[in-house]
């Protein structure tokens, strides 16, 4: 069965880029979410189909750190990779402590994403 990914990002361009890369890598896009408020609900409702979450830091409604905490509370084994602009190293370190598996800094490319996915799949 193909692995499912949930993309949480308010940038349509980033959603599009991530979708393309994950589909090429054999993943199914379970959903794409643009706002912080519905993010953890969508995760909860689709938890059985989601193998990986990409989570933007800056989102309308609720930020990525808060959503990460909610997802980890729902499923301590969740595989979440943070996506952010450069210059957020401190927040990224905080996210790793909360339970994020890794982070990707924008701008990213296919190789960077695939390397991150491989790292996560191998480390767990
Ligand atoms: Mg954003």
Concise summary:
With 124 residues, the protein is α/β, with parallel strands linked by helices. The chain contains 5 helices and 5 strands. 30% of the residues are buried.
Structure overview:
This protein is of the alpha/beta class. The chain has a single domain (4-123), classed as Rossmann fold (3-Layer(aba) Sandwich). 48% of the residues lie in helices and 20% in strands. The protein contains five helices and five strands, in the order E-H-E-H-E-H-E-H-E-H. The protein has a five-stranded parallel beta sheet, sandwiched between helices. Helix 2 (36-46) packs parallel to helix 3 (64-74) and helix 3 packs parallel to helix 4 (89-98). It is globular, with a radius of gyration of 13 Å. The model has no long low-confidence stretch (mean pLDDT 93). Bound molecules: magnesium ion.
Which characteristics define this entry?
single chain, 124 residues, alpha/beta, Rossmann fold, five-stranded parallel β-sheet, 5 helices, binds magnesium ion
CATH-level-2 architecture: 3-Layer(aba) Sandwich
- Number of H- or I-type helical stretches: 5
CATH homologous superfamily classification: Response regulator
Radius of gyration, CA atoms, in whole angstroms: 13 Å
Using the coordinates above, name the CATH class. Answer: Alpha Beta
Shape: globular
How many domains, as an integer?
1
Alpha-carbon distance between the two ends:
18 Å
Bound molecules: magnesium ion
Q: Encode the helix/strand succession as letters.
A: EHEHEHEHEH
State the secondary-structure class: alpha/beta
Uncertain runs? none
Strand order of the largest sheet: 2-1-3-4-5
Percent range for β-strand residues: 15-25%
The name of the CATH topology is: Rossmann fold
The biggest beta sheet reads: 5 strands, parallel
The percent range for helix content is 40-55%
Provide mean pLDDT, rounded: 93
How many runs of DSSP E, i.e. beta strands? 5
